[in-house]
């Protein structure tokens, strides 16, 4: 019970005001301190209420001032709205008067604005602007000023449009040389002399340049056209007043951009992938064999022709070795000699027709390998279409183009191999025919002597 009383006293002390100076000893002192604290709290509340009543009049004055300011601003707003409407009516009347006074000049200035805008756009993409930078800025400002307001162009501004058009037409027929900053293919910027061919092309150091869109700067083409075009660039840079041949792009770079995107010979071969390399390897082997056979048969045919003019048989040519059979068997009968000669001819035929069959096989296999590469490439193309859809025609065209490269390579190898085989086979058959003809003559001669 005593412990509970102490807890109650501690709770009352915790909730009492800070006015209590010391901890009470008994319940009477606790009650007295609570009464004193309640009195102090009530006195503080009365003081706050007095201060609030004293400030109430001040707050009412602030409210009245705010209301008066609001009414004043509303009156000013109404006055400004009326003035704005009056100004709009005056402006409409002035614009109508301006329109009536301008008459046909309004149409003239409209055309001037359109021409200035179109000319500024043309000059931004012109090679002439590299030599004369900043030409399009004034025209762009003029077109923007005439379009955003009713300001009329001055005589000087009209003459600037005419001058820009006249300058563009004049410079389009000139070949000019000047120095400017060129961005190389490596990204380095170098100041060097360049040659401008009208409004069509610009070259430097034997290479074509391109205009960076939206600027007056030029850069080297990362991919240059083929050598026959670059040779004309060198002739232009090194030439004097005499006419020179030059690859001109009348579209100002569009055709040149498409031309450099076309793959070269080595890139086409790389598109053929493994099958293409196999076809080319077979073609190279066939060409070497055909070259060896051509030289061999040419030398062999010359020796055979010389042997035809001689009676003495020589061992350095097929005909001489066949004719030597007659001297080797002088006493045999006709039938035996015929068999010996046939044996000698058959012994010479493999040497004459050696490797010709391999050339024929290459001429047949090469197109089949090309067809294999085409089918493989088409399979890859259709797999790409399955994954990415048909939204991009370039994807389909590029895949089909790569697939057909192997067919082209196969035909490129097969056609020469077929022609070479036909030529070499004809030469070998001619030599064999000479051997058979001479063998028949020897047999006829022996038969006549025996009879």
From TrEMBL:
Residues 56-97 form a coiled coil. Keywords: Cell membrane, Coiled coil, Membrane, Protein transport, Signal, Transmembrane, Transmembrane helix, Transport. Belongs to the exbB/tolQ family. It is a multi-pass membrane protein. InterPro entries: ExbB/TolQ_transport, MotA/TolQ/ExbB-rel, MotA_ExbB_proton_chnl, UCP028069. It is found in: Cell membrane; Membrane. The chain crosses the membrane at residues 275-300, 357-379, 399-422. It holds the Pfam family MotA_ExbB. GO terms for cellular component: plasma membrane. One of its GO terms (biological process) is protein import. PANTHER family: MOTA_TOLQ_EXBB PROTON CHANNEL DOMAIN-CONTAINING PROTEIN, PROTEIN TOLQ. Its main location: membrane. Residues 1-21 form the signal peptide. This is Energy transducer TonB. Residues 328-436 form the MotA/TolQ/ExbB proton channel domain.
